[in-house]
């Protein structure tokens, strides 16, 4: 039975370009207080454009209605549990949004004098300090803009360190359960990728690793807990093995929400890792960014960090550009400062013990979901799970229903689907991460929905195969979208108008 | 819930972790704070920054007025707290707005297709270069010295491990525009892309057509970047470019000490399968209604892994939405009027000052400090609570006695007059 939703009016809305009319406007500029300059004279006739064809022309009220109507077509954490595995969709506290708009912070120019930036620098220093404590690492760069950008930064540092030792080496080992960004990153940094098969418990196999690690292996990229939500129990042996062969260990910190306050990567032999501040530290995903991919390193990698680094000069903060071994810069300026502000607000609100408690609640929620759904869905890996749990569609596939179909039916029940068909080592995966945000009532609605769908698969698989039924947009034809890509609006031609 | 899990305590959830990895003390982070204390902490940090009356810094980050509607829209939880729109049926709001964004970026830049956003302008440039290398099967890159110095630094970082040698070419010492003779002398059949910025770092509008003609003559692509998106309201877009990779910070994105911003990457339709990052496409649902979804994802890391066009995953969706709302509010007429105000203000500011270059400029320009140290001029301005320009010696030793000044619609005439006075002193 569907308990979370019922049908509702949903407003239609054309594209901006279709609702524009000439001369409509939603802005007002102050009168110009200097003489107007003729653009053609100042820039040359050929350098001045005609008006922008088909650019929007709407009034202010039309603009706000447009975007408000679009917004109602979205699901969001503010509407309920958002169980995307590996994405850590937790509540985004609104105070974080407020403080990020503090005028003297939001309007700080990156080139304004350091004497006028001490508040910004103090915030950056505090974020670095807190994240070093949480990860057990020695130093951080906050420059990378997102997780994958952090991976690139980390692997570049590994390469530079190995080069300084005389040989950058050739290969990076990546478990077959890894996020796609890991191999893409290794490739971008000039390394060959060697995939490592997980063992029958979904874990990295020490014996397999021993066989493949030689002096051409630069690093292992490991996700811990891994993408099946299982902690790599032999992680200290794995990191020791890599180090004994002169290789380093990179940790993808996407799943750090399972570890904060419980265990620290710096204490189990990780050399370099990234954090997704937009996952573990609650900064909003915003429909796909902005993120921040802070990278934490151990001492031996500090010289290779991107420049500049923050240092204390007397009682003032200052940027230090004198870093001859640095890999360089990975983006202009100092990183996504506005995201750092939000992450620090989250850390402050929780405090050390609160952060640990959040981890425990996140892991408890995942284990509870596992218990509730285990009778109804196949659980391929029985190892104890951390913050997420991965089922497979094995039982439902017998009725011709796959994970993607179950996901679409879940939409009718008022939930965003879990992560579909990932990790790749689980055929037909349902990857569920509830986060600590959710209370028992919302989780029970969710597990009831999935149990109900499992029954529907038995009794009426067609109902699931054709889902969703209750959304304003039914199942979207992604195949045609890719076959004939239409990626921008174009005005109707006279011919097509005549055909109407 | 513990009972259901067969557990007696939360600690038991972690009993399978090996003892040697367990963290056995409390995190050294102060106890949780109330909402008021948090607001107060950040207000205090803001006060430490100090307050200023006016700033004439540009150089890749611009102070433009942010229409109120921008924050109203991006504060809606449905946009703010949603994920990347993988599940199209419950993300049509985000998908539709990205489709509109892609369209407006095409209209603005004169390109045929645009992606859903990049991290920022500085990282969009190396992504464009890698794309050019894939298309041309060549690796050598020619970059103008008048491209933002930090963009060139970032590019060098990316290029180092990709076997993409970078050669820089100069600017004309008189006009400040591209030195086309130097460019031509460095072009050969190894060059994948010529990379220029317009308006360039000195604010000067470049002859994109001429640069394109030279690049194309040698089988190279032309990549054009920009840092001041407002210029596109007035300046002829780089239609002759093959790839446009720029920065949208000017479109209602706060300077925010350097980020988060949003980059764009736009190109010709024929290169669509080489684009990095997310793309939204139009299609229909099973009832034949118009619908949008992420598309051509076989280019991307989650499908293609090490063979992907880029490792980019999370990008800057909410920031791109800010820019979308900005473009909607200003619209066809407004963006032109706004650009015109910027042009007029900068030219008023430049009047009477010793401009270093003669090329036509948009809203920033290089000025000689008449033998004074640039820093001394800025110190005089700071006494009046005004932040002056960017001293250029740090990036261009040959421009040691120069600074880059920028004026936007937010700089009042009285403050501009103060700046002029500081140069005369």
Quick structural overview:
The complex is a heterodimer of chains A (500) and B (425). Chain A is an alpha/beta fold. In chain A, 36% of the residues lie in helices and 11% in strands.
Could you characterize the architecture of this molecule?
The complex is a heterodimer of chains A (500) and B (425). Chain A has 17 helices and 12 strands. Chain A is α/β, with parallel strands linked by helices. In chain A, a hairpin with an 8-residue loop joins β11 (419-420) and β12. The two termini of chain A are 44 Å apart. Chain B has 425 residues and is an alpha/beta fold. Chain B has helices at 35-49, 68-74, 77-80, 92-109, 121-136, 149-160, 180-186, 208-217, 301-304, 317-350, 374-383, 413-424, and strands spanning 54-55, 113-114, 140-144, 166-169, 191-197, 221-225, 243-247, 263-267, 280-284, 290-294, 364-368, 386-387, 390-391, 402-406. The chains are: A alpha/beta (500), B alpha/beta (425).
Outline of chain A, from the CA principal axes? Answer: globular
Q: Residue ranges of chain A: pLDDT <50 for 5 or more in a row?
A: 495-500
Largest interface: A-B, 193 and 194 residues
User: Can you identify the CATH superfamily of the largest domain in chain B?
Assistant: Type I PLP-dependent aspartate aminotransferase-like (Major domain)
Helical residue percent band of chain B:
25-40%
- Number of contiguous helices of chain B: 12
Distance between the termini of chain A: 44 Å
Oligomer: heterodimer
> How many strands appear in the DSSP assignment of chain A?
12
Instruction: Count helical runs of chain A.
Output: 17
Percent strand of chain B equals 5-15%
Overall, the morphology of chain B is globular
CATH-defined topology of the largest domain in chain B: Aspartate Aminotransferase, domain 2
